[in-house]
Amino acid sequence: MADNKGLLVDEQEFADYLDDGFHDHHHGDKYQTNFITHYIFSQDHKMIAKQFLITGIFWGIMGGLMSLVFRLQLGFPEADMAWLKPILGKWITLTDTGVGSLDPQFYYALVTMHGTVLVFFVLTAGLSGTFSNLLIPLQLGARDMASPLLNMMSYWFFFLSGMIMFFSLFLNTGPFSGGWTAYPPLSALPQASSGSAGGMTMWTLSLVFFVVSVLLGGINYITTVLNLRTKGMSLWRMPLTIWAFFVTAILGLLSFPVLVSGLLLVLCDRGLGTSFYLNEIYVGGQALEQVGGSPILYQHLFWFLGHPEVYIIILPAMGLVSEVMSVNARKPIFGYKAMVYSIMAIGFLSFIVWAHHMFMSGVNPFISNIFVIFTLIIAVPSAVKVFNWITTLYEGNIRFTPGMMFAIGFVSLFISGGLTGIFLGNSSIDVPMHDTYFVVAHFHIVMGVAAFFGMFAGVYHWFPKMYGRFMNDTLGKLHFWGTMAGAYLVFWPMHYIGMAGVPRRYYSFTTFDFSAPFVGTNQFITIAAIITFGFQIIFIVNFFYSIFKGRKVTEKNPYKATTLEWTTPINAGHGNWPGHLPAVHRWAYDYGKDGRDFIPQIEPVTEAEKERDLARVH
Amino acid sequence: MMYILGFLIAVLLVVVFVQIGKINEIVARLRGQEVADRDGDEISAKLMVVFMVLFLVGSTASAIFYKDSMLGYGPLELATPHALAIQGLINTTIFFTGIVFIVTHIALFLFAYKYRRKEGRVAKFIDDNHTLEIIWTAIPAVVMAILVTMGLYVWNNTMADVGEEEKPIAFVSTDMSEEDIKEGVGDNTYLEIEATGMQFAWILRHPGPDGLIGEKNYKMIDAENQLGQDFSDAKNIDDIILDELVLPVGQKVRVRITSRDVLHNFAIPHFFVKMDAVPGMPTYFVFTPTITTEQYRENLSSHPDWQVPADATDPDSKMRWEEFNYELACAELCGRSHYSMRKIVKVVSREEYNQWLKDNMDKSYYLNNIRGTEDDQFIEYGKLTIEEKIEEYAKEKEAAEKTEEASDTSSDEETGDADTSSTDEGEDASSTTNTGDVIDEVIEDVNNAIEGSGVTEGTGTEVPVDTINR
Ligand code: HEM
Ligand SMILES: [Cu+2]
Ligand SMILES: [Cu+2]
Fold this sequence. Notes:
- The complex is a heterodimer.
- Chain A is 62% helix and 2% strand.
- Chain A is an all-alpha fold.
- Chain A has a two-stranded antiparallel ribbon with strand order 1-2. A two-stranded antiparallel ribbon of chain A has the order 3-4.
- By secondary structure, chain B is of the alpha/beta class.
- In chain B, 49% of the residues lie in helices and 12% in strands.
- In chain B, 39% of the residues are buried.
- Classes of the chains: A mainly alpha, B alpha/beta.
- Protoporphyrin IX containing FE (HEM) binds at residues 181, 310, 313-314, 356-357, 375, 378-379, 382, 418, 421-422, 424-425, 430, 433-435, 439, 442-443, 446-447 of chain A.
């Protein structure tokens, strides 16, 4: 380990290398001379990051509101929803007495949109789009991404994808309603569900554009990490954020195309009369001609993306949390190399566990044996990460910034949700748990909420870098406690509902005797969800207010952090560093070393340090 | 009006938030940012501990609160042997994960509190420790190895299909001991039922007296013939479509699960049974229900939660426990009424089941709608076919019982317990005659049914037993 931190480099060589011919443009660079090129079609990675973030926030609000509507239906099925009629129109059906209730078809459409929007638009684009863009060049000492143009296109494809999804909400037949996993034949047959008509076509189109966006972004992230690191920034000196974004981009590049092929085959089945996924179907009073396909093939293709996708969501959050935690504990992240190796291990393993989503789907039970083994192996690197985070706090000098608090909360959520994964990963236990509320609890805690916490940690922490101002601390802490308590109150009881065998995606809990006892629990959850959403409004207000009115950042490095982004000017222009690029002499985690609070990466290693580090190696 | 009000409240809240935030910022500036931050940290750190306590207590308390609602932890017993095995695995997992959950949460929040920022404290530079890391890689690895081993053992038992030596039957033996029923030991026979998912109902098919499910063809589906049963297949003659699933207790049941349209999932929570229904690809789940509905109700009756009127608005309605039923649900999103694919599952004593089958076996679609019409492919052979099938069944049954008896007595001799063996034999003898009677009656009934429908002549045909679809 020591060899990564303390090697001296030839200073002259440095200076030559760092003079990359960049000249400080006092009026911005030549691409950014007007409003449109600066704020809209910007090629500056920092601006693109903000675009991803704000679009992500928009979709976060949309997805959250959708969930409130279907939670209202679940918690208070008797309540009058007529007041939503001006917004939802015919999807609110009125009884003779004028009591409105949510149409089941639209309930499922909302569930589907909620899942899709949050998984893809918020936790993929909003999270890794934002922070990969912001931090990769800044923390690696690059002027921008390898290809700013592709980067800009990546955002605009995301925007287009979002627009298509948004417009699908207004279709007469309703938006797609077959679940975010879009299993055929339901998704392939308009006769089987009105949401599978135009809604599904637009959903597919939207996701295809989304994948284009992810791929353009991913190629850029990978290239930038591999080629544009500043002098001295060896791979082993990169902050964990970058490692996480790097592995995430690789996962995306390898898995998202598989989703596209899976979806294109659905389109073929819908439009061209092929039967990739269709076999012996009688629907809408008619026996379909298509035979020979297998719906299970789709599930293999989907989950070959789907499982890596959940790690595409959580790895960036892990990276952000590691960094925020180390900075605010004033300690190096514990076991840096173990953290990197576990990111890689998780990334690799995430490609060979997909069928744990399919234990009960009719695949040969023998196959499941293998997937159980790989799935439970993932728990090992995950556990290592958790232990390392906890040890990072040990003997620290912790500053409770909102970012830090969300980082600590993340660890708690990741533990709680990861442990239930160990239940589900064991195929036998998946027999009773599959497709019940237990799964809903599992993935909302470990992925949904935890990834949000990683994102919040990142937003609070790097807001000064984005906008040159701080977000309000008090509101940040209020937001943290409300969300932390609220999220657990919402999702924890779902474990019990699942352990009573209640399937997920049930519009009503009263059709079955076994689910009826949970009517009260459902009310509780709905109320908790509304309150938790209320706390998110605090965040949103804080965010937008602080952009314009927040406390100003007065020093370059307000957190006393070691990494390169804090060596740029407070409001850095395109190109990030005026004059030469910074040179790196050590790893990113020299906190509390030699009695010093922190030693920036740009500070050369002293002879004494070098000798001691070498001594440690031998 | 309401919208305006809502909007105003929203605006008000925003203003309040901004003011709170601002005031604190101003106060901080007045007191000095450093001091204010440190005081804030003190509070946050304490809240971390408060949260930890509330969370750990809350999660434990809620588990206790919900104990009686969860399957297998309170009055809601698990009604199949494989469910009990799975529950054992769940408990083992709860044990290990519970320890990790508590220890890591205490460490996380206590460290956060203990190492909060203090004037003059310098964090310690600890970058790694290989011994520690090896230990905490090894421990999860070992635990996972244990869980995987146990898990796969249970899995392969749970998912095992019926064996070659096991015979499909319709009428069940009535001489099974209480013990064997409870443990789901089985007698080398299985009852094959078919469940077909459609939007939005389950179509349940009993194989009829021959114990064999007939062929179907999705192109033959119409409003009448919901499954597309192919009535040129003799196995279809006696197949019965059921309103509710009736299963004999202690009997190994193989459900053949199919779908007509989209994916569904055959799920019976109390049995821990769950399997997707895939169009064009039959799947299966094999299980043995070991508690009759009657018994289950009785067990519930002693629990206060269940001693309340089933209909809360009507104090004179039946008690909750009296109304208990096993339920078949759909657990794979299949469209707008996915949540309502309910069918009742009745587990009855073996005698009751035989009687039920006897009473219902003339309800087959063929006998009531096809026989004697121009679509009838068995005008000539039908009579003999069904008789033969039943006779064949009776013979097999007898042969099976003989070998069983032989093995029963031998095992009794081995244990050498004179008392029980004599009573066992007594029971065995009487129940054997019972079974014989039932079968005789069955044959008679079917004869009547067939003769009643006006078929007089037939030359007989072989039913190819090996055409059962798996
Ligand atoms: C210890 C590690 C984990 C294990 C063993 C595990 C295992 C599983 C299994 C077996 C399922 C399928 C359950 C079912 O449908 O019956 C599942 C569902 C899921 N898991 Fe995990 N998981 C783990 C961690 C994670 C993480 C870290 C994430 C995301 C960041 C995640 C996200 C999800 C999601 C989104 C689903 C549900 C997908 C759906 O059906 O809609 N899991 N998990
Ligand atoms: Cu997965
Ligand atoms: Cu369904």
